Amino acid sequence: QVQLVESGGGLVQAGGSLRLSCAASGRTFRSYAMGWFRQAPGKEREFVAVTSWSFGTTYYADYADSVKGRFTISRDDAKNSVYLQMNALKPEDTAVYYCAANRQPNGGRVDREYDYWGQGTQVTVSS
Question: What is the mean pLDDT of residues 2-30?
Answer without folding.
Answer: 93
